[in-house]
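user: can you give me the structure for this one chain? tokens are fine.
assistant: on it. calling the predictor now.
[tool input]
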Amino acid sequence: MRTSTSRTRAILAPVIFGLAVLVIWQVAVVVLGIKPYVLPSPINIGGQFTKAFDTVWAGTRVTGFNALIGLILGAVTGIIAAIISALARVFDEIGLPVITAASVVPIVALAPVLYTMFGAGAETARQLIAALAVFIPVYVNSLRGLRQVKPVHRDLMRAYAVSSWQVTRTVTLPGAVPFIFTGLRIASSLAVISALIAEYFGGPIDGLAKSITSAASYSNYTLAYAFVLGAILLGLVFYMVTLALEKLATRHRPSLS
């Protein structure tokens, strides 16, 4: 009974808070007479979102696909690199400066370079930028999880004369699952944000960021916010799917205690 009540509160609390924010926002726009170019009202944004849904959906599919490719590529690369670093300390020590440098690479500077390399008409640059943004949190969290295995578990596996890879597969990886998914949850939002930012610096003109820029340049600020709403919903979908996968994976994860 308590579990059911806790779940209900966990769902209702953010919903009620979100509705309260929207109501305050709407009242503030009406009462204070805020102009649309400063901040459109939620009702107008919702109406424009519904009216231009096909256009918003088209941009969402492009940005979402690039973010998805980046998420998969960055996550797989990050997990593999973390496994190698956990197995070989020398790789971790050699790769640490590279990982540190990659974490501070500005997208503003990287995007034009990648567009030059792969062509302005290709989506490759956006996907690689999203992958780079995903790689860092997945690698860091996965490596931390891989190093959380208790010594008693390692000693037990050594007593059975198993190989390092068998220890990793049967003990280390299962124990690192929560850490890996923590990185993935962080990375899921970063993938969408990075794909959006990369669109501002060139490439095809069919993504959400380009649509936001185009709408704002024509002073159609309500439509621009409708595209922003599409980007927010896309980020939430990525996060919720990752969270659902985490719940599914940890539910069937064997206990190592």
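assistant: here you go. The first helix runs from residue 2 to 32. The chain has one domain: 65-251.
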